[in-house]
Predict the structure.
Amino acid sequence: AQSVTQLDSHVSVSEGTPVLLRCNYSSSYSPSLFWYVQHPNKGLQLLLKYTSAATLVKGINGFEAEFKKSETSFHLTKPSAHMSDAAEYFCVVSNAGGTSYGKLTFGQGTILTVHP
Amino acid sequence: DTAVSQTPKYLVTQMGNDKSIKCEQNLGHDTMYWYKQDSKKFLKIMFSYNNKELIINETVPNRFSPKSPDKAHLNLHINSLELGDSAVYFCASSQGPNQPQHFGDGTRLSIL
């Protein structure tokens, strides 16, 4: 079984300040982990992925995430928020094996608001 | 060029009707998916096809029937629409299972 918990349903930051979106996961197999972003009335866009290579993963638009197996966490960070970062962010886990192979399980989403 | 395209973008219909949503991807991917996003923005997978074969079939009412005529297309047909079917339906594709998925912009289905 696999599951994802995004610890904050809403995060609000000022433009130019750091962003931290928290995600914890559980998985029976070696997981692949992803962060997706969804802008209003749009589909989901892949920000970054972790697939058992380097634990610090760099993505698009200055985002990065660190895989910490001991903490079962995959938090998303960005040093300096931009107004265009305002969107909903989803942490996603995918099992590499078992009967749920390839099935993505989504977190509940975190809405990021960026203030001028 | 749109990588994953869904039609229609909006679908408003009455209870009891039958409707279809089409999805096409031009990425050369082998795997395609249908997701349902409810009013609370929670995304849940419904179906997945790999090389036109069904590989994931979640607990979905059998009123929902996916059809994959070829690797580039995965259509979703819904019979006897109910109020609870109102949602945004997303199509996605990937090179294979467990690979990053590319999403369409969604089809907003509203049942009157």
